[in-house]
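Notebook, student rotation project (T.W.).
Task set for the rotation: take a protein with a known small-molecule partner, predict the structure of the complex, and write up what can be learned from the model alone. Partner molecule chosen: S-adenosylmethionine. Sequence and SMILES entered below by T.W., checked by me.
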Amino acid sequence: MASESWMKTQAPDPTNLPAEINPEVPSIARVYDYFLGGKDNFPADRAAAAAVEKVFPQGKQLGRESRMLLRRATRELVRAGVRQFLDIGSGLPTAGNVHEIAHEIDPEVRVVYIDNDPVVLAHGRALLADEVTTTVVQADLRHPDGIFDNPEVRALLDFDQPVAVFLASILHHFDDSDDPWALSRKIRDRISSGSYMLITHFYDSGDPVCREVEQALLEGGLGSGWFRTKEQIERFFEGMDVLEPGVVAANEWRPDAETPTDSTTHHLLAGGLARKP
Ligand SMILES: C[S@@+](CC[C@H](N)C(=O)[O-])C[C@H]1O[C@@H](n2cnc3c(N)ncnc32)[C@H](O)[C@@H]1O
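Predicted structure of the complex:
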């Protein structure tokens, strides 16, 4: 099968791809993969990334710091007793995925990855073939009910019990006119009391570089990536209790011994964790 042979190559061969993958159009998952140092990206993705690097050469550092926040949150949530995770817009598998971090503490933790990009599904299925507590499902955040009612999702997750929903670096790919706040509200309504929602989001800290990066994302090929203020990001948690330290710059969110304290980039991304009362 084209998809299988493609997955086994180190760098993808654009002439041997499943039909649903168009290497000519940059994809969010593949551009992000580039920033995380991955190999699953094409020239069009690297061109979109280069437009960002032109105004913000430290894009890879920001990508790393964003993943570090995700890992800290995963550990904290497992330690707090959460045993189910729904990671929406999970991206291409990278080192230290949510299930790997969670399973270091408890191998019974169940994790469902959701992404609408067929590349993520192909890689995820290959990576998770032997996993019984973790799966990846192709679905779209634009239709939250389609995620919560999906039989494959429900086979692993019990939404009558607390779950941690991750919306990490995905809501900033929705324009205001798409009303991403309605999406987080819908998710809040579908999860049980005691559930959590983690959001990371491009952060408009007032630094002019935010608008420059936004412009590069919008006009450099990718076509999405909006920076929002702390207040706009806090609104995603409507009806939930935002936990300490609130919505803050990436490395200020519950830093641990490995969190860089001298970062000049982390204020481009904010993170926050809330609990449904
Ligand atoms: C920037 S990546 C973030 C990956 C990961 N959550 C992280 O923070 O490291 C955003 C991911 O969201 C996915 N995505 C974008 N729009 C989506 C949608 N409408 N439904 C599901 N996934 C989506 C992309 O394919 C991509 O893999």
